[in-house]
Each structure stands twice: as C-alpha cells, then as structure tokens.
Design a protein that fits this description.
287 residues, binds NADP nicotinamide-adenine-dinucleotide phosphate, six-stranded parallel beta sheet, six-stranded mixed beta sheet, globular, single chain
Length: 287
C-alpha cells in the first residue's frame, strides 16, 4: 500500500491504544479493497481530548474510533449523534462528513451480528444480560431496538453501574417495544427464574476475563439449561469458565472475538460505504 498525497487518515483515540487489533483489521481492509487510506493509533490523555478532536477535524480525517475512557466525553465535541448512540450514552465511531463530526456506536451492532454466527435470532426469546457498564449499555439498547421481547438486566444492586441499569431499563421501556427490568445479581433465586425462562444469556461483565479466568459471573449455575444460548463478550480467554460450564450442559455458546470484528466492520462501513472483506480478515487475525 503506497501512501500518497491523497491518502486519508482513520484512527483510534483513547488510552491505552497500543494493544488494539483495529489497525491490523482496518489497514488490511483498505489494502484488500484498494482504498487510499491508513489507520493509526493515537494515545490520547484525558486532558488532550478536545485538542485532539479539533486537530482531527482540521486534518479532514475520514473518521475515527474512540475507546476507553473517552466514549462518553467525546460526545460533547461532536456535531451530531445517532439516535442509538444517544440512547446508549456513548460513541465509539465518528465519521467526518465534510467537516461535520457524526457519532455512532457500533458495539451493540457488532454483538448482534456475532450472534447470527452462532445461529441465534434475537427476536426468538427473552434475554438475560449480565452487567450494565459501557459494553452492556450498547448491547442492551441495540438488542431492544432489534426486537428482543423481554430483557432482564442482571447487575449487583450495590455495584457502580446499578443506576445505569435502571436508566437503561427506563429508556428501553419508553423508547422501544421491548420490556426491560433490572434484577439484583446477588439475588440468586430471582436471577435463576429469569434465566430459566430465557433463551439467551449474555455476559457483559468483566468477570472471567484474564488473569481471573476461574471466576464466573453467576453464583448458581444449576439454572443453565440446554435451550439457552450462552454468549460471553470476553475474548481473553477465548473460552471463559462460564462458556465451559455452559458447554457441559449442552448450551450453544459464543465468545467476544467476533463482536470485536463486527463492530470494526460496522465502523468501516460508516466511513467508506463499503463492506469490510470479513473472511480474509477473520482468517488472518481472528482465529
Ligand atoms: P465496564 O463499563 O467497566 O463495566 C463492567 C461491568 O462488569 C459492570 O456492570 C460491573 O458491575 C460488572 N462487574 C465487574 N466486576 C463484577 C463482579 N465481581 N461481579 C458482578 N459484576 C461485576 O466495562 P466494559 O467496557 O463494559 O467491559 C466489560 C467487559 O466486556 C470487559 O471484559 C471487556 O473486555 C469486554 N468487552 C468486549 C468487547 C468486544 O468487542 N468483545 C467490547 C467491549 C468490552 P458493577 O457496577 O456491579 O461493578
């Protein structure tokens, strides 16, 4: 790929960013589609966010991704925010449209597309979502907008994100056809009764992520049943203990690797109007 005087820039901002797989994924897609663009990472400290965004606007970038901890704060610097990102309260993708910066959130969309890979239709049954942090918010809103009939948000009542769980449920009940409620994750009996009547259980907490790979986000695993698809958005390790236990019971399972791929593919489409060539990128970076 040759850098020319016309080469457009796309990038990732936030901190830390050096570990990200996004440069590999997007640069490979630009190369495969012969697009004159390049994707870089810029470690951006909190205090520099405004300066960075002004610079990106002045440089007429194609667009950029935003990661922790700036997904919420970036919204104050944008000209427009998509309705879904507005409901989620966070932006992970920004498109530059002739100097206007438009914010989107592709995490939930990426997650729902990854469910299609395991053969799960979100409209087919009720959903239990573990967690109410950043990733859980995008999944909850996108799932509700995509036709999940009932959504149980399971979060610790004494946890930091419990108020966000309540906000999400209120927004979903007011703005979509989905019925949402919030259940205390420490109430094992209530959690079990939600899981028993659901067909999808999604772990969007950080419980089970390396290095704490022995941890499971549920105290009682006896309510898992073979009719349940169990999905963990963690991708390190590839198989969390929750997924291992669910497989023993005969549940269909999926990890977070393809959510990562598809949220990137959705951002790529927003910037270029083209479909990311998924298969070669999956084979090269996601196996
Ligand atoms: P976050 O905003 O910090 O949210 C973390 C969530 O986990 C909160 O709801 C928190 O609840 C819950 N939690 C933490 N420790 C817990 C515990 N011991 N018991 C019960 N709940 C607990 O983080 P995030 O950005 O949403 O990320 C969450 C996970 O998703 C991470 O593992 C991250 O790597 C992964 N992720 C994957 C993708 C992907 O593309 N696959 C994308 C984004 C994130 P409390 O309020 O009760 O603490």
């Amino acid at each position: 790929m040759e850098i020319t005087g016309h080469t457009r820039l796309a990038c990732l901002i936030g901190s830390p960013v050096a570990h990200s797989i996004s440069p590999m994924m997007h640069n490979e897609a630009f190369r495969l589609l012969d697009l004159d663009a390049v994707y870089l990472c810029f470690d951006t400290k909190d205090k520099d966010l405004g300066t960075m965004i002004r610079a990106l606007r002045d440089m007429n970038v194609l667009g950029f991704n935003v990661t922790m901890p700036d997904k919420e704060r970036v919204m104050e610097y944008l000209d427009e925010i998509s309705p879904a990102a507005q409901m989620i309260g966070a932006v992970n993708t920004v498109k530059n449209e002739n100097g206007r910066l438009i914010g989107y959130n592709t995490d939930g969309e990426g997650y729902l597309r990854s469910l299609e890979d395991v053969g799960y239709d979100v409209t087919s049954g009720d959903m239990c979502l573990l967690g109410a942090g950043g990733a859980a918010s995008s999944i909850a809103i996108q799932a509700a907008l995509s036709g999940v009939p009932v959504l149980h948000i399971l979060n610790r009542k004494n946890g930091r994100s419990y108020p966000n769980a309540m906000r999400l449920a209120d927004q979903i009940n007011a703005g979509t056809g989905c019925h949402a409620d919030v259940v205390d994750l420490n109430d094992a009996e209530a959690v079990c009764s939600c899981i028993k009547t659901s067909t999808l259980l999604t772990n969007a907490t950080s419980v089970g992520m390396a290095p704490h790979t022995d941890a499971v986000p549920l105290t009682d695993l006896s309510c898992l049943h073979p009719g349940l698809t169990v999905s963990d958005i963690i991708y390190n390790p590839r198989r969390t203990r929750l997924l291992i236990e669910a497989e023993k019971i005969g549940c269909r399972t999926g990890n977070g690797l393809y959510m990562l791929l598809y949220q990137g593919a959705a951002a790529f489409h927003i910037w270029t109007g083209q479909d990311m060539p998924i298969e070669p990128i999956r084979a090269k970076y996601f196996c």
